[in-house]
Amino acid sequence: MYKQMITQSTTPIAFFGKLFRAGDASDPGAGSIETTPHNNVHRWVGDPDESHGENMGSFYSAGRDPVFYCHHANVDRMWNLRNSLGGQNINDSDWLNSSFYFYNEEAKPVRVFVKDCLATKLLGYNYQTVDIPWLNSTPKAHRTGATLPSAPTPGEVFPTTLEKTITVAVKRPKKQRTKKEKQKSEEVLDIFGIEYNIGEFVKFDVYINEDNPEDSGPERTELLGSFINVPHGHSMISTTSKSFALTEVLEELGADNYETILVTLVPKSSTVTIKGLKIKFDNTKASA
């Protein structure tokens, strides 16, 4: 949770997901807590004996399980918590002026704008203040300042189908950025062109500077996170992307002065095709 809510949520785009405007491809890329832990919980609570992990483990049937509503209220609480920790919301007018229609208690449609829903108190509710143990549960590096083994570049490997563990050496656009530069923009690993079947459970883990992923778990800095898809009720090929924040991670690994880092992808389910990956900067850290 610390990784997803703190390390991987340093910008509005990182937390909410990539910009999605009218005419764009349907799934540009999810935010930090959408795939983990949101999708994880769906998978864990779903029945593995059912053909599609019903009820919670499949998109079409999840609402049949009462825990679905508790789960999504808790996801909403994460937004509330992030705001209390100083997290920024998106200030793009396309998002703020987006609207939805709901039926009120008189069965009349009411138009609700996103800009009117940015604080739970404005909606007539708030969450109880409780202890958050994971705020102090920072991940620990397996090792720091490691000498990295040689590996092919992304251009030599991708596009490819992720059928086995793949490790590539990715060149950074700039090393040893100043404190001011880090405050302005987040260094990001962007895995793009992820093609998968939305009707299947899909997962792969992503590691940085770890030549033996079996030695690292969620408690380790080297595990950046995962891409996870909750199955829908039908088969269809979709293409998306997944990004991971690197600034804090590289500092923890003693790798801020590295020109190149190792990225390892470990498949955990049905195969996916990946077009490529690169490191870039998310400049929405100061504003969105």
Automatic annotation (TrEMBL):
Presence of the UniProt keyword Metal-binding in the record: yes
Domain Tyrosinase copper-binding span(s) in chain numbering: 65-76
InterPro entries: Di-copper_centre_dom_sf, Polyphenol_oxidase_C, Polyphenol_oxidase_cen, Tyrosinase/Hemocyanin, Tyrosinase_Cu-bd
Keyword match Oxidoreductase: yes
Gene3D superfamilies given in the database record: Di-copper center containing domain from catechol oxidase
Keywords: Copper, Disulfide bond, Metal-binding, Oxidoreductase, Thioether bond
Entry coiled-coil feature ranges: none
Any one GO molecular function term: metal ion binding
Obligatory cofactor(s): Cu(2+)
Region of interest (Disordered), residue spans: 27-50
Superkingdom assignment: Eukaryota
Assigned protein family: Belongs to the tyrosinase family.
Full protein name: Tyrosinase copper-binding domain-containing protein
Species in which this protein is naturally found: Cinchona calisaya
Lineage, opening ranks: Eukaryota, Viridiplantae, Streptophyta, Embryophyta, Tracheophyta
